[in-house]
Amino acid sequence: MDALLKDLEATVGIGGLATGEAAAEQAYTPWARLGKPAAIVRPRTTDEVSRILKSAHAAGAAVVPWGGLTGLVDGGAAEGAIALSLARMNAVEEIDAAGSIMVVQAGCVLQTACEAADAAGLFLPLDLGARGTATIGGNISTNAGGNRVLRYGMMREMVLGLEAVLADGTVVTSMNRLIKNNTGYDLKQLFIGSEGTLGVVTRAVLRLRPKPTSTNTGFLAIESFEALPKLLRMLEAELAGTLSAFEVMWPEFYAFVTTEPAKGRAPLPHGSAFYVLVEMLGSHPQADAERFETVLGAALKAGLASDAVIAKSQAESDAIWALRDDVSQPYRNGPASTYDISLPIPAMPAYIETVRRDLTARWPQAELTVFGHLGDGNLHLIAGVGDRSAKKDVEKIVYAPLRAFSGSISAEHGIGLQKRDYIGVSRSPVELAVMRTLKDALDPKGILNPGKILA
Ligand code: ZN
């Protein structure tokens, strides 16, 4: 390890390397369990990333790529490993307005990239709560989702090309700028969503979109689950491709975020079965506002919603979104854990019922809070059973039924270490064997983010 650290210092300079206690201190974040890395190395160029990996590969040392460290499944855990932080590779290299693309380095913070696109009159649609810290490289390697997937897709849909460095230091430059390019294997897909286990993403070409010039936000009360998918499909059809969010809150979540000590105030009375935040992004402010109001009115008339409010200002819209984003409230009654799952919409009530029944059968005081991106089939569950040591048992209750419902144990958070033992719920032995073949081919020594996704 000492010889390797000398090599790393020669590559990045003394300012780009932290070891020992300094590394342990810098590895602290309040929400992620990163362990104590042997070193944190911060390269400035792709060539330095390549040299770092070449050295680590020769030494057989584990390397864990780090972005903004906002992941929720311990994908950045780096106990005893070399943590490779892309923080210093954070430039927006180019924006091509005519081509509607941007070229960014992996360590660029998502919000910075979004603001750069905005300043150029364009739009990078990825949006999630960690926007101010999460990085483009991390968004790519985890295939981030978030709030606007319904309209714009996940990160995968925004990546046209990328550059990645393989475990042995080989640089794969695949900076495609074309929307259509069917020339053999689409190599970028190997690195999107593979959580740094197949290569380290260093740069990317992102597809930008026209900047919306109107935003309309509404909040609706719904009285039955059956009305939810009907309302969703009605809005999709009637708003003709401009529906950008369909976020559902179960009543427990709504109660948490609209009562003291939460700062949020209830825009609609308590007591309904579900609450839905809907957002429309358009480009004709006057006409869009009228259309939005007409369509929500029609939903009320059709009995799909029992009550509705429309935000009349940016502040009112922000206040509604703040309710949705106030995800720490369900933790105020004691220890709890968040789960990110997806399943077909019609299967949701039976699945939630199964989880609730199994939790309360074991812990009568158990609390289950549900909310999420229902339009994407993606729910977030927060389960608190008053016993921190029961985490494994709760996981089993949440994940095991998903197989029968054809669901997924991870909709957008990834696998990391936390869900690794359950990947077999959502992936077949043949699929796992193909993943293993890819891993062995690209990283034969198993140095890249070892133990993540696959054991
Ligand atoms: Zn989410």
Report on this structure.
The protein has 15 helices and 18 strands. With 455 residues, the chain is of the alpha+beta class. It folds into four domains: 2-85, 2-Layer Sandwich (Uridine Diphospho-n-acetylenolpyruvylglucosamine Reductase, domain 2); 92-210, Uridine Diphospho-n-acetylenolpyruvylglucosamine Reductase, domain 3; 214-325, 2-Layer Sandwich (Alpha-Beta Plaits), CATH 3.30.70.2190; 329-439, Alpha-Beta Plaits (2-Layer Sandwich), CATH 3.30.70.2740. A seven-stranded antiparallel β-sheet has the order 15-12-14-13-17-18-16, with helices on both faces. The longest helix is centred in the middle third of the chain and has 17 residues, at 285-301. The two termini are 24 Å apart. The site of zinc ion (ZN) has 3 residues, from loops.
What keywords describe this structure?
4 domains, binds zinc ion, Uridine Diphospho-n-acetylenolpyruvylglucosamine Reductase, domain 2, 5-stranded antiparallel beta sheet, single chain, 18 strands, 32% helix
> What percent strand?
15-25%
Bound molecules: zinc ion
Which oligomeric form is depicted?
single chain
| Helix content, binned percent | 25-40%
Low-confidence stretches: none
**How do the strands of the widest beta sheet line up side by side?**
15-12-14-13-17-18-16
Give the CA-CA distance, first to last residue: 24 Å
The class by helix and strand makeup works out as: alpha+beta
CATH topology of the largest domain: Uridine Diphospho-n-acetylenolpyruvylglucosamine Reductase, domain 3
The radius of gyration computed from the alpha-carbon positions, rounded to a whole number of angstroms, is 23 Å
CATH class of the largest domain: Alpha Beta
How many strands in all? 18
Name the overall outline: globular
Note the main sheet: 7 strands, antiparallel
The total of helices stands at 15
Overall pLDDT score = 96
CATH architecture title of the largest domain = 2-Layer Sandwich
